[in-house]
Amino acid sequence: MLYNLLSPLAQDSIFFNVFRYITFRSFGAILTALMICFIIGPRVIRWLKSKQKEGQPIRSDGPEGHLLTKKGTPTMGGILILISLIISTLLWADLNNGFVWVILFVALTFGAIGFVDDYLKLTKRNSKGLRSRYKFLGQLVAAALATLFIWLLSPDHIQGQFALPFFKDFALDLGLFMIPVGIIVVVGASNAVNLTDGLDGLAIVPTMITAGCFALIAYLVGRIDFAAYLQIPYIPGSGELAVIGGALVGASLGFLWFNAPPAMVFMGDTGSLSMGGILGTISVIIKHEIVLAIVGGIFVIETLSVMIQVVSYKLTGKRVFRMAPLHHHFEKKGWAEPTIVIRFWIIAAILALIGLSTLKLR
């Protein structure tokens, strides 16, 4: 909004020229989302507590300590993230950019699916919530619409391309098959973040790191000079996603203030599904789907641990891990929660550096 209103004034005053710079507006989005979180966070948490007398239902088959340490903590804290993200994006992004509206659509639809899931968990007082088939169907429909719009908004020559890191001037031309691939990426990223959200602060920091990395990549992909130098796809208009990435970084940092151990609020599916969906959608727009799997490797590892556990149990009747996702395995082994969380953060930072290295190692 500020870009659309103030950048035309640059011809009359040089001061307003700063609103034309994506870098300036990205930092503005970070600070705005952060301040909104700080300002409304306590009010949102008090409201959630007033509506959720017993807090989020705790899994009876989970780590024993959760029944003592996490009982009574309210969920649906993702509302705080979404409010901060959306307001900040609307303030700082170019609202004439179609990619911006695709991301906002994903944020709202996936957030709504997560909200329904959280609401059912609270009202039914169990950890199951919305039936998996309905949740998955809703994600598929939303991801399909988003991917279709991305296809229509992208330049013709790159619509069906699937870029591979580490290779110069080489991409797989998948044609229309790129649409189902995009759907898989968006839905997969959404559920991967959701599976990782199991300990205080565990999911929010890797999300913040991944959002920061993809804000940078989106900026580079949206600049024809940088894209040519790095030999990555140039996608007009995609640089504006750096503003949304910045807003997600600020919202995540603000939410961490309240989600740091011991958490005052859980993000719930309202937050995890929407944030994962946003990251997946950005990766599809800028043609860095594989890089998302590297930078967001923590989410991939957590998802694989669940898949391995399920397959192993069904085929052999034995479990590979003491409990899945992986962070619960380490809890069962006696690791302290802060130890698990901080070590996962360190791994997330390392994976982010590896993912960013793909921009140059070609």
Helix content: 55-70%
What is the arithmetic mean of pLDDT?
91
Distance between the termini: 38 Å
Structural class: mainly alpha
Q: Give the topology string: H per helix, E per strand.
A: HHHHHHEEHHHHHHHHH
Molecular shape: globular
Taken as a percent bin, the fraction of beta residues is: under 5%
Number of strands: 2
Could you describe the largest sheet, including whether it forms a barrel? 2 strands, antiparallel
Number of domains: 1
**Low-pLDDT segments, ≥5 res:** none
The total count of helices amounts to 15
* Oligomeric composition of the shown chains: single chain
Strand arrangement, largest sheet?
A: 1-2
Integer-rounded radius of gyration: 20 Å
Commentary on this structure:
The protein has one domain. 66% of the residues lie in helices and 2% in strands. The chain has helices at 2-6, 22-51, 66-69, 78-92, 98-124, 132-153, 178-196, 204-221, 224-230, 241-259, 268-285, 289-295, 297-316, 326-332, 337-357; strands at residues 161-163, 171-173. The chain has a two-stranded antiparallel ribbon. The longest helix is centred in the N-terminal third of the chain and has 30 residues, at 22-51.
